[in-house]
Amino acid sequence: MAVKRNIKGSTKRRIKIFLIFLLCSFAAWLVSKLTEDYTDNASFDLTFVNVPDTLLLTGVSKDRINVTVRASGWQFLGFNFKTKEIPIDLAALQFNGTSYFSAQEVYGNQITAQLSGSMTLLQMDRDTLFFDFDPIISKVIPVISQLELDLAQNYLLDGSIEVAPDSVMIRGPSKEIDTVMAIKTLAVTLTDVAENFSRVVGLIKSDSLKNTVYVNDEVTVTGRIFRFSEQVIQIPVEVINLPLGTRIRTFPATVGVLCKAKVTELKTLDPNDFKIVADFNEAKEDSKFLRLTLVQQPENIPNIQLLDAQIEFILNRE
Fold first, then answer.
1. In 103-218, where does DSSP find H-type helix?
2. For a Cys-Cys bond, which of 150, 153, 217, 230 suits 191, CB 3.0-4.6 Å?
3. Distance of CA 166 to the CA centre of its chain
């Protein structure tokens, strides 16, 4: 039994040694083959960089180039595991009066320069590359704020909401931006506001403007808030378009106007700054009331309202 075990162990050792020598021989053969030079065909996907700022690339006559190269087996082995993509610089793009193009000599030199130093380009497609572009234009469009403001009691907005910048520049193909007249901000709601505010708000970019660049992505929306005082001032009513030969009496003869503003501005109020009219042409048949319209008011008062919407009248013949 001991003799059989020794024979069996010896056989296993000889098999292991044989396999090791076989593996080493294969490795030596593989290394020898991989160090030899080979000639083979390959394809490169072309990408394009440094497109002129005034143009948008929309198409190219060919974006894949077939080549024949000579390189070592090692290089071909590594080459097969890499992304075969070559960037082509369009800074030196040529124009023949009708088309933009890049001659084979131009982009071919770029491909050669990007190959490994020990890889030789033997042959490649001779086609000239022709490009389709859309012209890029710039356009300034106004910004429309979508801020909703809910003021605290007894507070008013001083002036109007300000947007900075109030317009933005967009750049893109003319067919995309020709119809763009304005751009809106994101909707923002501020509630119970009792002090000055400033908010950075993003702009709504249309999904249809895929090739358009916005110089600004956001704007700043600001507003000044103040606590107001109130004052009622009595203004006489002027009736216009009276029929000839008639006189009119209104009840009341004056109408109260409620003004909300800063105290300093209320002190400067003068009845002559206001004008309230009632148009007799608007009087309805069998009606004894005329609608009132405030046609003149001071610009520095942010909130003004008539306390009466209409007045009663009596018409007399002269």
1. 104-114, 174-177
2. 150
3. 15
Residue 204 sits at φ, ψ, to 5 deg, of: -85, 115
pLDDT digits (tens, 9 = 90+) for 266-287: 999 999 999 999 999 998 888 8
Structure tokens at 107: 């982009």
Instruction: Give the tens place of pLDDT for each residue, 298-318.
Output: 998 999 999 999 999 998 876
Q: Phi, psi (5° rounding) for residue 22?
A: -65, -45
Q: Which token pair is 156?
A: 């008013």
Domains 35-127 and 229-317 share a fold: yes
Closest listed residue to residue 32, CA positions, set 73, 83, 84: 73
Please, what is the Cα angle at 29 between 23 and 33, to 5 degrees?
A: 145
> What is the value of pTM for the model shown?
0.60
Q: What is the CATH number of domain 35-127?
A: 2.170.120
CA atoms of 204 and 194, how far apart (whole Å)? 28
Q: Decide: 134 and 174 in contact? Cβ < 8 Å.
A: yes
Q: Pairing state of beta strands 246-251 and 310-317?
A: antiparallel
Q: What would the DSSP string read from start to end of 230-267?
A: EEEEEEEEEEESPPTTEEEEEESSEEEEEEEE-HHHHT
Contact between 163 and 185 (Cβ < 8 Å): yes
Single out the residue of 98, 34, 28, 112 nearest to residue 68, CA to CA: 112
**What CATH number matches the domain at 136-227, 3.30.70.100, 2.170.120.40, 2.30.40.10, 3.30.420.10?**
2.170.120.40
Which residues, including other chains, have CB under 8 Å from residue 75's CB and lie 6 or more apart? Answer: 116, 118, 119
